[in-house]
Fold this protein.
Amino acid sequence: MTRSRFFCSASVLAAAMTLAASGQAMAQNSGQAATEVDEVVVTGSFIRGTPEDAALPVDVIGQEELQRRGSPSTLDLIKSLPISGPVLGDSNQFSTAAQGQVGAGTINLRGLGSLRTLVLVNGRRVTASAGAGSGGVDTNLLPVSAVGRVEVLKDGAAATYGSDAIAGVVNFITRTNFDGLEVSGDYRLVDGSNGDYTANAVYGKNFDNANILVSAGYQRRSELKTTDRDWSYLPYTQNPSGYSVLGQPGTFLPLGATGAPIAGPTRDANCGAVGGFSGFSGTTPACFFTFIPFDNLIEREDRYHVFGQANVDLNETTKLHVEAYWAKTDIPQIRFSPGFPPIQGPNGPGSVGVFSTPISNPGAVTALQQAGFTPAQIAATSRVSMTLFRPLGSGGNPIFDNGGQKGYRNYDIFRVASSLTGDLPFAGIGYDVGVTYSRTQNRQYTPDIFIDKLQRALNGFGGTNCTGTTPGANGCQYFNPFSNGYSGNPALGLTNPGFVSANANSAALVDSLFERGAETRQIQDLFVVDLVFNGELPIELPGGAIGWAAGGQYRTTDFQSSLRSPFQDVRVTPCPVPGATNCSLPTGPYIFLGQGTPTQLEDSVYAFFAETNLPITDTINAQAAIRYEDYGGLTGSTVNPKVAVKWQVVESFALRGSVGTTFRGPTPANRSTAGVTGLSGIQAAGNNFKSVDFAGNPSVGPEKAFTYNVGAIFQSGGLRIIADYWHFNIEDQIVTVPAQIVATAVGGVGNGAQAVNCASALRGLITFSNNNACIQGVTVGNDIQRVKSDTVNGPRIKVTGIDGSIDYKLNDVLGGDVTVGGSFSRLVKYDIGEFRLGGVFVSSAYSALGFANYDRFPGTVSKLRAGSYAEYSRDQHNLRLDMTYVGGATDNRGPTTIQTGSSTNCNVANARAGTAINCQLTTLGLEVEEFYTFDLTYRLQLAGDMTVTASVFNILDRDPSAARLEPSYDPFIGNPYGRTFKVSVRKKF
């Protein structure tokens, strides 16, 4: 089914008001529960009457609680939940898996991965983000101003909801029965930025047999530069992760007329003056360039959303619900390094010496003179090979204000849903029928330089007005690749003493080197039809009547990826020179980025389910469910049963438990043969950024999981305690082959100068320089240019943990009420099985628990996440103190090495043994410490339905712990904000 047919179908059905909404299931209809009502129908069952402390572990967070906590953003709310593991949202640019989703948000229950958490709106599915490396539903595109409560089911739920609910379900439920107009706004003061602010408006109206709700909102998240946090920009000898051996200034090699070297590789004379580190790669002098000052910790983000819904009682038993929303995230100026390093040149893959310039280049003679070459050596030089080099670096990019490149990311969603609920005229059977259509679109642009244009400009034939055959004449210009062509480092405010103004590159010349028409656009549509019947059987158990529900679902997903420029398409422009198609090793036209192919894929899934509620006795209640889903094709079908039981032992104490299987099928993108290129600092290449090519796999199969949960609930007076032990065992997980593990298996560990293992069984997943040649004893780690990361069924995952929460309320304390509480999620086990790819060994089994896992999945796994609060409420005053805690992690990679001079044996083993020459270990971030914050919020309710709230977040102004990552901290443990202040105003008319 095409996208236009999706939209047409959804629009007609919604307009006709005959069918209803969305995705996986219908935990409850949003039009049937007001946010003011205490007893709610919670996520996890189609059968009504399931309270928060029932057999299924469900947390409910209401609008009132959110306001008392200072109205956190969706991202901040999710990050504060102890049951949620690492999520996207803060510093994403340096995470390979998140590069297609910078600025998006996710939720990651139990730390099992965001794709294993099902996100619903009003009990119905939302399509996942269409972006490359999608983490599932983009939670930053939810209609936050309309949300009345959030329900979190912390248990596998495929028997009820189908695919994707392996770790659980998060259901965002909109407000109902709201009457009037409410406007609100807030401003958050952030040191070093222009601050964050939001504005929202909600209008609702109740009629005799209907109600409507309309809301709109805007959020600005301001740019926060790395240079605004001194801990994020560290010297090379402390954290080499943010430095590249392919520098600017760089290292060059003067060549004579025969191609023989006039002298050895030579470091540019102005390296240290413009912020580079004068070091060595093996025995080769190098100027290590830091790109970090040109990047941001947080990008500027603008978000918009509009939401509307209507509930109509057609008669005493028949109700109609219609809703629609649109939301958008715009990142208009995402920052990058001034220019990417070359990993391919005119003659194929390679980084070292792949570009060169003639001695006639005005900057070449100056560079040789500044480096101390004699007039005789300069006279003997014919060309200069750019040995370790990038076109733009410390001097910035003259096109942009502070020298960093700018691209963009743009995400939007449109969703419409309607449902019709009522009773059949016989047997007391109710029905709920619905339809949902949702569509996400991701657009992104990352600038890069053309190989052919760069080499032509180095030869004196650059510029848009170049004509004729004489270099440097008739509108033709030389591109100066040396440091004497720029005045200093604009990001660090450094002055270049070797600058020669006559040798400067013009902004127009630099601009002409780049591709400006490129854009990747990805669209994903989800169309769902649901039909559910429910009622009670004419059979009663000692505890009451047996409730039941049964029904079916049909859903179709369509995924499209398009490329705006022919240079992005590997079928059209496979070679470095546009128009050529017969190169021996196709690399495409860009010096760094890869290419893709347009694609369109479609999935159709059929599902049937049944559920029953069994009140066995007055104190024992059981729920049983089973669901069948058919994906067709190679994925096939699955049947997932689940049983949950609650035993009310005494009035104040109950036991509960559940057991079942669950399932996640591959997405269309998982099965796509088209690929996307990400960027990652590869440890085997001295953490230099290399391209990682992600591709789908048509034969990838489903992943399956066995889950169980055992818990207890104690409630007496104002005290409530809940504890649960849970277990997940996932087989055949859908995963991309980890690029770091592959690169390390082939290239080893070191500063990039260590020899690689050309005989490795994983050699075929690596593209090396020198036309992909690998010569044992000669090829080194930094010769890695690209790593292939295909989608496959990977090793098993076994995760267990314990959750707990406690809340206690005291009334009449100094004329008010005091409430204290806390919750935690403690991982007990996080084991990853042995990984084999086509029978080839990839990695051994390991425990990920308590480790940073930067070079392997699943990424950072803290043992403990927790939160606590103390709250005092009296009349119109409310004061609340919150504490959020995220445990630290050990960097399993161990230390790395830094060369302090020329060396042939600088590696970790030799450095530890004390035999390495000019070599030292760096231990920064071996233990990433825990991160905790205290947040204080005061709320004052004034006359005229006005509320003023003031908050101080991170009262102690704690900085995140150091980590050996590019920005020098782990965004999945800490955050870069420091102490911030927020003021909110809410007024109802």
Remarks:
- The radius of gyration is 30 Å.
- Confidence is low (pLDDT under 50) at residues 1-42, 49-53.
- The first helix runs from residue 3 to 16.
